[in-house]
Structure formats: structure tokens, C-alpha cells
Amino acid sequence: MSKKVIVIGAGASGLMAAGTAAENGHNVILVERNDKVARKVMITGKGRCNVTNNCTLINDLIQNVPTNGRFLYGAFSKFMPIDTMEFFEDMGVALKVERGNRVFPESDKAVEIVDALNAFSSDAGVKRIKGRVTSLIAENGEIKGVKLEDGQEFFADAVIVATGGASYPLTGSTGDGYTLAKQVGHTVTELKPSLVPLVCHEGFCMDLQGLSLRNVEISVLNTENYKEVYKDFGEMLFTHFGVSGPLVLSASSHMKDIKPRKYEIHIDLKPALSYEQLDKRIQRDFLENSNKNFINALDALLPKKLVPVIVKLSGIKPAVKVNQITKQQRSDLVNLLKDLKVTVIGFRPIEEAIVTSGGVSVKEIDPKTMESKLIKGLYFAGEVIDVDAYTGGFNLQIAFSTGRLAGSSI
What we know:
Elements: E1 4-8, H1 12-23, E2 27-32, H2 39-43, E3 52-53, H3 58-63, H4 73-78, H5 81-90, E4 95-97, E5 102-105, H6 110-123, E6 127-130, E7 133-139, E8 142-148, E9 153-155, E10 158-161, H7 176-183, E11 192-194, E12 198-200, H8 204-207, E13 212-222, E14 227-238, E15 242-244, H9 246-252, E16 263-268, H10 275-288, H11 307-314, H12 327-338, E17 340-347, E18 355-357, E19 378-380, H13 394-409
Parallel strand pairs: 1-2, 1-10, 2-6, 10-19
Antiparallel strand pairs: 3-5, 4-5, 7-8, 8-9, 11-18, 12-15, 12-17, 13-14, 13-16, 14-15, 16-17
């Protein structure tokens, strides 16, 4: 039987939910406050859009969702990464799989993903309205509709809240969904930044601002118990406040109850070389530049911006001749290059996080349908729910899976 459905939010989960509900024969209105849809999708993966992760086992997916991963079992089982890939390829988007099973459009353009989602919902007959929903209308434990900022009311048999989180507010994710959920009695767990740049103690981070390091390895150490909580290889970036980039964003989601100096990041600038190999490489460089000052002898080994920082940290005088550097000094230099330490003193604000950790409590949502256990006919999809994942396409997969399930459960 055809029902009137309102979807709040035209992001990844909202567009998927709206298009799915319309495909199933429902009369769907999609309310979006921005002029353009899926603005956050446009900036994911540096504008390339890491659309999903091509892992084939449901347990692999769940292991990459540190917050309430088991809750998503039903949603994932109905719509896996292979389904996401087929969905976009059927919409004419050619895809490719990169390191770590990350899936991108072949064109490296996020706009192709956005256009496909937009076309999916439009072709299915979804009607779009520009506006901001300020309250849900519910009576006797049932959803009845929504009220907009301008006073308009729209009545419906079902409402899907797909408003996103509280990160990147310029894209429209300003936490409206949490307010709406609370209005009708839902619990919203504490909101924290996840996949977020890190503020560091060391002043040299500012000196290195804008320097991107590729092919480095980082390990994160919890100084309270000296356990390694994260290790990976890839790309990172120095900023005026500390560090960012894909490796750092992933590392941030492994840092719990953060407080100043609890975590250290150890950077191996030359992970492809062992200590012995790096020492021999430096010996060769020094031999070729034996009459040069130390500060002028590292250009072949390091990015130009990094040289003065490494020289200062090494304790070797910049003007000393390379042929005067002792074996011990060279050994200390190798150790520095294999273990450059930065001390984390905090997260950047939630507004700068890629995703929000926290949200509508999963205890109050039916995992088999995404329907509220408190209000009949009210559904949730995407980042507004208290689930978040590591980088690598997992968060968008959550959006697609929960949006698909919500849209098909009405």
C-alpha cells in the first residue's frame, strides 16, 4: 500500500532512503535545507569520494565500525559493498579498487557519485522541497509529519531522519537530527569528533605546515600502558596546529578518552629501509657530500622543508662538515628518521571532524528496520545514529546500508 513518506536530509543516506522508498511505490517528499544535495559527499576523499570498501565478509565490515558495529548486522546483510558497487555501476559510474580495498569512481570525481544518487531519487519520483525541519509531529506514539522553519507543516505516514552528524556544519550537518530525536523522547549519546585532525605539542609541526608525507608509517602509543593502539602505512600532513591526513584521521578514531600527552605518534620517515639499510644510505650520501655542511647534505634524503627541522632535532650543528660527523651522531640521526615523535594534546573541534561519534541511541532503534522503538513510523539512517567507522569507505557504506534498509522497511 502506498504511503506518504518524508525524508529529512538529502545526503548519502537520505537520497538512498528516499529513492528506495519511492521505488517501492511510496509518495516521497525529500526536505533539504541546502540548494545542492550531498554536499558532504562532494568533499569526501579529497573530492574523489571513497564510496565504499570492497570487503566481502560482513564481519570484516563490522570490525571496521568500532562504535556499535553489531547493530549494523541487519543493514549490512541486506546491502553489502558489492551491492553498493553494483548500484553505482548500474547508474553509469565506473569504479576502481585501490589500496586497502578502497573504492573510488574511475574518474576520481565525487560529483559522479552525487549525480548518480540525485538521479536515482529523481527518477524514482521523489519530490524535493527546500527547507529546514524544526520539529517532528507525533501523537500517541506515532509519527504524523514535520514542521518547517517557515511554519509549513507536512503530514506523512512515515518520516526518515537522515540529517547527518555535527561535523562539517558548512555542508549542512549542524546536528538538527539530534534535536528532532530528543523532541520525541529519544536518547542522544555524547557527541565527539571522530576521524579528526590532531593538535600536537611540538612547535616543529607549525614549521612544517603544508608538508605532505607519502609512504610513511605511523604507530600510536598509549603512554599510560605503553601499548600500541594503531599502526599503518600511507600519507599524512603537517598543519599549523599539529597533524592531519588519511593516516592521522584513521589513528584518531583509535584514541579514546583523549587527554594531553596520553598518546604519542611515532613516525617512520623511511619504512622501506631497515635501520642498517638507512645507515648505509646515509653513509653513501655523506661520502658524496663529504665537504658540505650537514644542513646541505640531506636534500636527496628528505623533503626540503623537513631538512632544517631534522637538523635541529638531531643536535648536530648545521654548519659542521659531513666528514666530521661521528658514528654515534649518525646512529642518532638514523634513529630520529625511523622514529620522529609527536605528542598529541587534543582533537581539533567536532566541526572539523569527518564523522561524528555519538548520536541517536541504537538501543532505541530496531536494527532489522531502522524504525524507532519509541515512535511508530519514525526511522533513522546514516550518521545521525550512534555508529561510526574507520576511514576507507566504511562510513559511506553505513549511510547506504541504513538508508536502503529504512527506505525498504516502510
